[in-house]
Amino acid sequence: MNKVWRLIATAAVAVCGIVHQAIGQGGQASNTATAGTENQHQSDVTFSNYKFRDGETLQELRIHYTTLGNPHKNAEGVVDNAILLLHWTNASSQSLLVPEYQGALFAPGAPLDVTRFFVIIPDDIGHGKSSKPSDGLKAAFPRYGYGDMVELQHKLVTESLSIHHLHAVIGMSMGCMNAWQWAENYPDEMDGIMPVACFPAPISGRNLLWRRMLIDGIRSDPLWDNGNYQKQPPSALQGFIVALMMIDGVPALQHEVPTVEAADALIRGIGGQSVRGDANDLLYAFESSRDFNAEPRLNQIKTKVYALNFADDEFYRDSLQILQRDSKLLRQAKIALRPVSDGSVGHLSMAHPNLWKDHVGTFMNWLDAK
Questions:
Q1: pLDDT (tens digit, 0 to 9) for every residue of the chain, 370 residues total?
Q2: CATH architecture label of 3-205+285-369
Q3: In the chain, where are the structural domains located?
Q4: Could you give the CA distance from residue 36 to residue 119 in angstroms, rounded to a whole number?
Q5: Best exposed site among 38, 75, 121, 160 by fewest CB in 10 Å?
């Protein structure tokens, strides 16, 4: 893949979450042996008449999830090795089961070695094989927020899997923000959290602006038809170019788009992509962050926090010093900034755990130190 097509693929991953791996069919449980994993299991749980925080109700809400490894029970019969791993916006558990994640995090000897740990990876509401607007309700689907998302993750872990204490919660981007919410909402239910690529502050600045541009582009598209379209409106695909400028690192773009010809080739390539995704799903996913703000309750967090950001992430610039300011409110906190290097791609470095697996190892060793 040449440099321009790597950028096209990067944009597709970022906006439409189309990094997928065939690991079973929706609604069916399966056990699959794959490199770096042991006892990979997929299944669905349903919650009847689930009431969202805004008062709306869904008669049957489905959450799909994958588990890796096996639960271990201590002398008291309590599972003590469970790790909740949370994906980014418009991705799914499948995005975290690609070979790079398997080799970097789940393989024997890796930080989340699934011969030692029981890793739980849900498809969040609105994503993957969990309930979402494109299942049929379209714009009549309830307007979920991150609060609903985290509550459903908690119901999956505690009610469906009967696990009442997690060794760790690790999340990237949207999952990063969910990890902060876990530590605040359930302060005694984990040994530590590792938020990767976010701030505990509300989404604002560049990150908010590009989201609103993408959302407005879809809503103002006549073919969107108030969410009742019969064919996918083209505006979501057109938003890729804005997304690419925002989500990839400035050094990476400077290196890989050096000429007018390269820029034009990138634009043509994105315009020619056939994207597997749904405009309503995209809208709901990006609007769901509206209720996120972890800052007011940071001083209530009891657990260990290891927060990691990337130096070339234009959404979460270290120069803003937001994480440094907020971390002063935490009881047990370590913050880390991964420097720019060959292969780093800004915010989307989260999709390449080979770049930051050593930080996961440091976090896990810190938890073991008690």
A1: 444 444 444 444 444 443 333 222 233 333 333 444 458 999 999 999 999 999 999 999 999 999 999 999 999 999 999 999 999 998 999 999 999 999 999 999 999 999 999 999 999 999 999 999 999 999 999 999 999 999 999 999 999 999 999 999 999 999 999 999 999 999 999 999 999 999 999 999 888 988 888 889 889 999 999 999 988 888 766 666 666 666 766 777 787 788 998 888 877 776 655 456 788 998 999 999 999 999 999 999 999 999 999 999 988 999 999 999 999 999 999 999 999 998 898 899 999 999 999 999 999 999 999 6
A2: 3-Layer(aba) Sandwich (3.40)
A3: 3-205+285-369
A4: 13
A5: 75
Residue 261: what residue type?
E
